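Checklist before submission:
- one chain only
- standard amino acids only
- sequence pasted in full

Submission:
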Amino acid sequence: MSVPNEQMVNGYQPSSELPQRRSFGLIDALWAIAMLVGAGIGYAQYSASLDFYATGTLFGAALGLGFLGWIWPATRWLTAVVAAVSLFALWRYNILGADGAIGRAALAEFQESTFLFKFLLSSQAATMWMVALFFLSIPTYFISTLTRSAYGLKVGSALVWSGVAMGFIGFFSRWREGYLINLDYGHIPVSNLYEVFIVFAVVTALLYLYYEKRYNNRSLGGFVMLIVGVALGFLLWYQFTRDAEVIAPLVPALNSWWMKIHVPANFIGYGTFAIAAMVGIAYLIKDKMGGDGPNDRLPSLAVMDDIQYKAIALGFAFFTIATILGAMWAAEAWGGYWSWDPKETWALIVWLNYAAWLHMRLTKGWRGPVMAWWSIGGLFITSFAFLGVNMFLSGLHSYGEL
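Returned file contents:
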């Protein structure tokens, strides 16, 4: 079946609005080489502690940063700032714990007595900065969109970029702090609800910034950062009522290198699905108000439709990879690839939902409000798979109960 003429349905604009790709240049090549050199230095220093899989992850991350720096040059500055500040924090922590773990009390005393760590570089301080910056970006984006303030929208973007940087700095500090408390506690901080909510916020914000740059439009920032703000509101409640920020040892099943790749891939999927849903809300608001017009404050319907499609397609790819990785991890940990555990079952439901969304768009040519409503409904399905299963169901994946 042929796809309907997009200029005749739902007030779409010509595809010339949509962005073009960059060519690969000398600076891109130098950046990729710099990332590989950095990985080589890390390997030379810590090769005795790295197995085959950890080595692959190290150089895979370097290649990924090199590729990201090509398609999105702004991430070079983000990488440089996060690397410089995080390495400084880790250097100070390494001096403190040069001979191994120092214990929770000694670490807390050091953080409390050191100005930079108390107010900036510790995982808790950096995370609170991230929360504050993300919260501030929401009214900044909305007010600037309503008043058509280009400067205000730039401020909103700067707040999000700064929040992402602080989130990553807190991430790396928490990773090191686990080892300082107890060598057996050390792990990549993606193992419980508190840690993955931070991952969700950072990943979603960073992905949004990519679409903001790619489509050269900042007016959707308030919508996307609103869902990030909701997630962070839960994070604060979870922290202050349950002491969720306390670093604890891993349960045995999570003590695996699979966690380092399965969880991040999952949250790229969750983040893009959330972006698609919030763009869908903006789409429906604009469609209800008459569609494209001379007084628009939001991107055209065509652009918002394209963002939804690109976000769901990217998320579906990563969610598929994460599901396959999860099955392989399950086979190693529990002896079987699939057990119809509630988390697995709801992951399949999420996958089928977005597979159907993409199928109807690509083969039937569906566009417009129906797909926007569908992407919003998909967010509720995804939210239950992410959080609701932990709240209401139990199973092999019960590592993040409330």
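Reviewer check: Confidence is low (pLDDT under 50) at residues 1-17.
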